[in-house]
Amino acid sequence: METVSPPQTAWSRETALQEKRDVWQSIKRGFRGRCPRCGEGKLFRAFLKVDNACSVCGQDFTPHRADDLPAYLVIVIVGHIIVPLALWIETDYAPPVALQLAIYLPLTVVASLALLQPVKGAVVGVQWALRMHGFDEAHPEP
Ligand SMILES: [Zn+2]
């Protein structure tokens, strides 16, 4: 037996008059580890633990669903920096493999750890700005 989903709210003047949210500003605030709404409160309570709510404006952060996207994006970003660098150095200078490993492996680890929290903050900022998941007060997730 199929379940019937509740009807979607139709577009109306009231739905269009919601507070505008600047996506780029939210990304920048999240990247800095700040609340995407006010830019003042802290977004994280631990390295990768998003706080439950903003300490300044009270914005609820629990609806965020960053999941694996920050890690995926960090792999893409760091890979697009380290791999061309390694290919360029190998083709032009051909240093010993041990020296390359001694540089590339720690560089990859440090760059990944350095980017993980800012990228996760940016993802939460995008989700808030686009009213994804439970960030839309007009249509909260059940
Ligand atoms: Zn805030």
UniProtKB/TrEMBL annotation:
Top-level taxon: Bacteria
InterPro entries attached to this UniProt entry: DUF983
Transmembrane stretches, start-end: 69-89, 101-123
Keywords: Membrane, Transmembrane, Transmembrane helix
Keyword Transmembrane helix attached: yes
Name of the protein: Uncharacterized conserved protein, DUF983 family
